Predict the structure.
Amino acid sequence: MKPLVLVHGFMGGSGQWAWQAPLGRERAVHAVDLPGFGENAPMAPVSSIAGFAAWVLEEVSRLGLDRFDLLGHSMGGMIVQEMVRQAPERVDKLVLYGTGAIGVLPGRFEPIETSMERARTDGAAATARRIAATWFLHKEAAAEYPACADIAAQSTLGAILAGLRAMQAWSGGEHLPSIRSRTLILWGDGDRTYPWSQTERLWRTIPGAQLAVVPGCAHAVHLERPEVFNLLVEEFLARD
């Protein structure tokens, strides 16, 4: 089986994939920490989705991975779409999880500029904990929220602002029809971050894309329902 590369989302980190350890029973699994986030918080942040994609491609090359399966969550889903665009010959199967094809969503709860100003005013840690709560159906009461929020709080203010700028400037919709990797779209039906319209666009536009919707979850299906998430991903990757 090909190795699996996991790319976390905005204010995420490799530690948020702890419940996905079973995916490594029969394959190598590599979870990256993007510059400015998680264990790479001290690194200089990147301010474009294309720049993040190029960085991850260099990182997996450093690990000796030539061809691999790829899973991206949220902003990480944008990054992996860009990775496929930059190096389509390297990606076998693709999982787009809790993500979309545009960086600025219609009807966003507040303008990106407002989010940047709030981050500057509130500070990185408070911003991370506030936003991490929205990823769970039961917000701060979710069992996995504290650990997830602790990882999110490692994000630097520079990385938060750079990530918001990166998403603001990115749109990948025109490239969806050219994706040739076998693709699974995975979404929690209570996701507050990416509405169904964004998930449906990926599913209907990427040639041959398959769809899995998990009920009773928000933006963190891999933490809220890890057994279901792992089974869906494992079965998809195991298919010929």
Notes: The chain has one domain: 4-238.
